[in-house]
What does this fold into?
Amino acid sequence: MVLGIDVGGTKVAAGVVDGNGAILEVIRRATPGRDARAVEGVIAELVQELGARHEISSVGIGAAGWMDLAGARVVFSPHLAWRDEPLRENLEKLLHRPVLVTNDADAAAWAEARFGAGRGYSRLIMLTLGTGIGGALVIDGGVERGSFGMAGEFGHQIIMPGGHRCECGNRGCWEQYASGNALGREGRELAKKHSPMAAGLLAAVNGKHKDITGSVVTELALQGEATARELVAEVGDWLGLGIANLAAALDPALFIVGGGLSAAGELMLEPARRAFSRNLTGRGYRQEAVITVAQLGPMAGLIGAADLSRR
Amino acid sequence: MVLGIDVGGTKVAAGVVDGNGAILEVIRRATPGRDARAVEGVIAELVQELGARHEISSVGIGAAGWMDLAGARVVFSPHLAWRDEPLRENLEKLLHRPVLVTNDADAAAWAEARFGAGRGYSRLIMLTLGTGIGGALVIDGGVERGSFGMAGEFGHQIIMPGGHRCECGNRGCWEQYASGNALGREGRELAKKHSPMAAGLLAAVNGKHKDITGSVVTELALQGEATARELVAEVGDWLGLGIANLAAALDPALFIVGGGLSAAGELMLEPARRAFSRNLTGRGYRQEAVITVAQLGPMAGLIGAADLSRR
It folds into this structure.
């Protein structure tokens, strides 16, 4: 058995994973603020608890952020306090087991490639749509990390110079157009304009336009609310355009879409596929990639981190 | 010795290449229109002529277009008549030697990686700036072709939705902003507006604004003409923005810029480097790639095709 730990901004989840990617047991704790030592303490508690009930040979940590190529250091983590932190060294002292540190999007892509929607594909791109766009490229049985370990930041490709400001400091990043945050922002903007089209959105949040989030719009779209469906389809259009860009550059046979926003399913993917086909360079003269939803759900990162720690 | 053949829209060049990437002899013919059989005939003549003077073990063909993964078929070639053409089979019958069919940008990247500006780098992207942007990604000693053999079309990543129309049928492709064609178009537009800033450009073409091309502007910029320098710097800005996008996605340690437009040298690369640093996501928290000019010049494609045929 190997152990995967998903360190999020609000929760730390730990799961025992077998050789087929199945989770035998999972436990969770609240993320103790941004303090690096406290987070390491929580990880140690979780490993101790699960280690009492399972034979655990290694531990994989998945978190948002940039990890070094060796899987040892967190270079930078957006919602945690790790800054060039030797997390593997710190944790191996506490856990007495080999530790691998990995990016959560890389880990999720690895899990989908090995055990989920990507089985049988030698090249795929996984896109995790949530606050932003997590991304990873899997080639021939390995996650492509780049020269400095920072490949896969597809969400920060600029597709609209001078466009919406991104948390990364740039303007016009793809994730400002094709993410849960983008969907929420569009919903709020529509509501603030007092558009009659926003009536359904506002009714769902008791008139408080600030409470319109990507999840709220997704939920309404699934219930059939017309404006919410339009907004989801718009995000799908941007998703498809960006996927066409990635196909031009990298030409994988498969794109897997996961993350919270993928709950919208075909309401988003059908427009995405149309936009993809319409924007793909060389269309008509080439094979086209498949665009599909992830199969492993929110546990993909944990499963992938665990499995990667085995190698 | 191996033989490399560069099939261009106007000329077919054949060169004998040794194991160090040096060219021993090169000969050229005009490309006989768009007829596929006639082009194959010219290739056969060139191989026969060089084969009489050198021991040639294999032949690599480089051409613009999409080649299948096996190096056997031309799927589509923009300025030649090849459409799903079994070029390797056709040529092996004529040449009695093993033949490899490869994309010219892939071949040039391979040559630079093995013998030129990319020596010592395990990951690099080569951009060939001419009419458009040829591109290729080299990872760990191989050209990354994608699932269907069409990876590396970086120039057709859409960076300006609704922007300039591209030959590929889309709008806003990167190569409409960072190529020799883009430079020429900007020069002509400025001249057509009767801008006093275009006086230097118009003087160079005897007032015929239609004669302003990317090469004309590049040449004027190198001579110090102020407007030409601005236009070249603008192309450099777009080049740097697109390189930042590629760094976000693929994080190679090196970008090599080749092709006719690279004659502008630092006049283009210096603004490109500034735009790259300004648009790179995560700047300040990551190592930055080097942007440099190609070393092998216009023969890179021929050298690379020859060397790839050896494998």
